[in-house]
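Dear support,

I submitted the protein below through the web form. The confirmation email said the job was done, but the results page showed an empty box. After a refresh the structure appeared. I'm attaching both so you can tell me whether what I see now is the final result or a partial one.
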Amino acid sequence: MVTDKLPKAVIYKDGKLSFLDQTKLPMYEIYEEQHTPEQIYNSIKMLKVRGAPAIGIAGAYGLVVSVKKYINEPVDKFIMELKKTGEYLNSSRPTAVNLSWAVNRIIQRAENSFFNSSNELWYELEREAENIYNEDKKICANIGRYGAELIYDNFGILTHCNAGALAVSELGTALSPIYTALNEGKTFKVYADETRPLLQGARLTSYELQTAGVDVTLICDNMAAYAMSKGLIDVVIVGCDRVAANGDTANKIGTMNVAVLANYFKIPFYAACPSSTFDNMTLTGNDIVIELRDSSEVTHFGGVQTAPDNMKVLNPAFDVTPNELITGFITEYGIIKPPYVINLENILHKGRK
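What the results page shows now:
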């Protein structure tokens, strides 16, 4: 099975939390044990752990680990520190909704529980974080099952950034259909955009796919149009970090470029994500807060300066793909097609039951 070969982004065992430092991939596989909220915040902020579902899982476990030192305090003091730490961890990356969703779920579990001791409450929150992890595994498997129906023998698939096992609990979102199709014996080719400026496609996606035995070809971001024009691409599958109520979708910078090209070449463009990524409190893409990152990510390449000193830089981490460019969303409940305002709300309603 493919899952036996894939790396784990987040490992929690016997009360200890470790993240695979994805900034060191593909050359080194280094797991760092996480001890403090400051370390966990930095790991998320510096993309040592990244991908919307994975940082949600990291946030949930991270919050639980961070407040363990308060288990001998009164329950009201414990919950106060839990909220304070949760707010701090939430601020590490504002665009992906899964982080705040998972952290808030841990906090709500504490507020809705009735325990006489903080120690008992802490173990309940640990179980809730484990539930979030296990639920994500099932979600990823279902996304893979539905998404694999879109992949046929001899297909060419384009993906952008990394939405595989390194971005979730297991399998991935955008890559889960690919792994599922591979398990089903289908033959196809994957083209992975390098994904500037941090090369998640080159460092992470191509590494994952190659490790799993997928026929993968790495291309520069500006080669997508060439690949499409030559008939190499039959479907585009990407992940996403936040979906507004109208279907506008935030994903790694460069995703909108791919969607525009797919629309021009009449190639289906799908975004794969769990229903927790749908945010009906955000009405359109214009309301999504876009994280701006440090200029050095653009002025330097592989640690070497590639731009003049004091160069002005615009470095958004995400862009927003308009809903009209999206063929559908691959979710744990099936493939969602327009009209998105209605159908995404129906999915959220199903998830609340």
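Response: this is the final, complete result; the empty box was a page-load delay. Residues 78 and 223 are 52 Å apart (CA to CA).
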